[in-house]
Amino acid sequence: MSDLTLTNITKSFGKVEVLRGIDLTIRSGEFVSLLGASGCGKTTLLRIVAGLEGVSSGKVEIGGSDVTDLPPEKRDIAMMFQSYALLPHMSVSDNVRFPLRMRRVGNREEQDAKVKAALETVQLTHLADRAPRQLSGGQQQRVALARAIVSNPKVLLLDEPLSNLDARLREEMQVELIEIHRRIGLTTLFVTHDQDEALSLSDRVVLMNAGEIEQEASPREIYDAPATAYASSFLGAANLVPARIEGNVARLADGQTLPVSAGSPDGKATLALRQENVDFLDEGGLTATVITRVYLGSRHRYILDLAGQKISVLAPASVMLEPGAQARIGIAPDRVRILPA
Ligand SMILES: Nc1ncnc2c1ncn2[C@@H]1O[C@H](COP(=O)(O)OP(=O)(O)OP(=O)(O)O)[C@@H](O)[C@H]1O
């Protein structure tokens, strides 16, 4: 069953079209990330699902009902933003109770039971009587999450909820989100511009580019088999090298060739090479010129000139080459992603 279906959504602000023909279905219990560069339209799409923004055309269905023209409070959704905006004069449990009171859900005992369950889910039962200012940033974030899930919405909408946290807390909350999602299986739409976050949290990643869906796939597939040059450079910053495919080899601009998997049509192509898949060799392989070496502690990053193209490559710290030196590099044929030119 699908909990959220978007059909041919378009949205313009004045003359500017920010969403074009978005079709997206999210299955019950699925965790889907909308990933994309700033301005690609992901927040606008989330706000359309929430009912905070109208569509120019298209249809929004939640739990099988058409909600396109319904206001936010009539949609079975909950939303959590970057700024979690807890009410400072209320205790943790009253903050979590707030949406139930606003929507007049159940009597006091029923509300108590729901608040208790939500606080248990985020493991904050012991802090129920505290005021928000007596909590750490991560704890406040978890209160906001409890408040979002307390009414057991059909769809949970999260807009960059972790982007205000420092790196360590952010990683902790990512793990927490994964575990909470596993426990309660809420259908979730998560907006982020952070590819690591999208890859680590989601069942499916929807990569957006300029108001359109560029590719949607599982994290592994979108990383290992990006469908377009945009997808491969957005996810994991692949090196893009122009080439000509000639059967089982790719010929680079300077005439050097490298073996590739069979099956791609002959002719112009772009090779997408992930920096972690390039190996330094003692002999054979391709020749590239070292431009820069950056020390990263356990490894080096080399910027190389490969057939007139700058590429970035990771190497063990034991590989010591000076700028101007010739490096020999190899890439396993099944690690060379061939994209249309
Ligand atoms: N209310 C508005 N009026 C006019 N233009 C808007 C409005 N809201 C958003 N836009 C424009 O729509 C485009 C998409 O914005 P949106 O916020 O959806 O992008 P985003 O991908 O979420 O980016 P970010 O990660 O920076 O929030 C942007 O060019 C933005 O300037």
UniProtKB/TrEMBL annotation:
Pfam families hit by this protein: ABC_tran, TOBE_2
Molecular function in Gene Ontology: ABC-type transporter activity; ATP binding; ATP hydrolysis activity
Protein name: ABC transporter ATP-binding protein
Annotated keywords: ATP-binding, Nucleotide-binding, Transport
Chief site of localization: membrane
InterPro entries: AAA+_ATPase (IPR003593), ABC_SmlMolc_Importer (IPR050093), ABC_transporter-like_ATP-bd (IPR003439), ABC_transporter-like_CS (IPR017871), Mo/tungstate-bd_C_term_dom (IPR008995), P-loop_NTPase (IPR027417), Transp-assoc_OB_typ2 (IPR013611)
Family that this chain belongs to: Belongs to the ABC transporter superfamily.
PROSITE patterns: ABC_TRANSPORTER_1 (PS00211), ABC_TRANSPORTER_2 (PS50893)
PANTHER family per UniProt: SPERMIDINE/PUTRESCINE IMPORT ATP-BINDING PROTEIN POTA, SPERMIDINE_PUTRESCINE IMPORT ATP-BINDING PROTEIN POTA
Compartment(s) of residence: Cell inner membrane
Membrane disposition: Peripheral membrane protein
GO terms for cellular component: ATP-binding cassette (ABC) transporter complex
Domain ABC transporter: 4-235
SMART domains: AAA (SM00382)
